[in-house]
Amino acid sequence: MKIPSTTLNNGVEMPLLGLGVHAPKNISEVQQAVEWALEAGCRLIDTATAYNNEREVADAIRESGIPRSDIFITTKVWNDDQGYTRTLRAFNRSLERLRLDVIDLYLIHWPIKEHRHETWRALEKIYADGRARAIGVSNHYPAHIDELLTEARIIPAINQVEFSPYSYLPEVITYCRDKNIQPEGYAPMVRGKKRDDPKLIALAEKYGKSTYQMLVRWSIQHGVVTIPKSVKRERIQENFNVLDFSISDEDMTLMDTFYDNTRVADDPRTIA
Ligand SMILES: NC(=O)c1ccc[n+]([C@@H]2O[C@H](COP(=O)([O-])OP(=O)(O)OC[C@H]3O[C@@H](n4cnc5c(N)ncnc54)[C@H](OP(=O)(O)O)[C@@H]3O)[C@@H](O)[C@H]2O)c1
């Protein structure tokens, strides 16, 4: 199974579907989950300093024997580490834990007003030094990016935001596309909160797929990079088994109307 990819604004290729590794009950589950995902064809892993599992991700990648260049690894600078010098130090520690010389994508995890420009300046330095193949942001809505761009020399390659039909804000995605920023979505399956939604169940039955698969597929069809998380082998396989069908335009439009502002994380609109 070849997972489709997207080309970022600096020419780097990124898979459209990957594995998220946020908050498993036991850190020990992460290595196994990443190994299963790689077996299932996954080549994008989304971690973060805040997830405290960069070492386990590194162990899985080493065990897999898959060439490093075939795997796209994202990590993120946490809020407490923001600011120019602190971010540079945090980045070094992440690389050490991941046992890498170069990360594929380094993101600012959340927009922290007082550090916004300095943190981005650190990411620009990391990029200029060739230690990240791409740099970007997360949880940034248009107002945050507008402000960032007043001083930025490099336009973020990615903006990772919560993205499911239930939190879908088309204006955020359109804004990113207009700026040539690739949107990436997290919590595509709303952490299971919508598995009993009759509207979603009806569509899943129509396509002979699970509600989880419908949500992952919806993200991919929007051209948004998506990173469903599971630590269970069958679920990982299920979440990656979404390339053999497509949702009709009509049903995509229908799913676009499911918005009810259900979120798993804070709404960036509440952050200055
Ligand atoms: N940038 C940010 O601020 C931010 C915030 C949140 C998340 N993220 C990233 O996005 C990734 C995904 O988001 P998320 O983990 O919050 O939520 P999610 O991927 O929407 O949902 C994960 C939850 O759904 C369960 N699950 C997964 N597949 C399933 C299936 N096929 N059937 C039944 N249950 C299933 C998982 O349990 P099991 O593991 O037990 O299967 C887990 O509890 C994260 O891991 C992280 O990498 C980023």
Automatic annotation (TrEMBL):
Residues 23-259 form the NADP-dependent oxidoreductase domain. Keywords: NADP, Oxidoreductase. The keyword Oxidoreductase applies. The record marks K76 as: Lowers pKa of active site Tyr. The active site is at Y51 (proton donor). It holds the Pfam family Aldo_ket_red. SUPFAM superfamilies: NAD(P)-linked oxidoreductase. PROSITE patterns: ALDOKETO_REDUCTASE_3. Substrate binds at H109. InterPro entries: AKR, Aldo/ket_reductase_CS, NAD(P)_OxRdtase_dom_sf, NADP_OxRdtase_dom. GO terms for molecular function: oxidoreductase activity, acting on the CH-OH group of donors, NAD or NADP as acceptor. Belongs to the aldo/keto reductase family. This is Aldo/keto reductase.
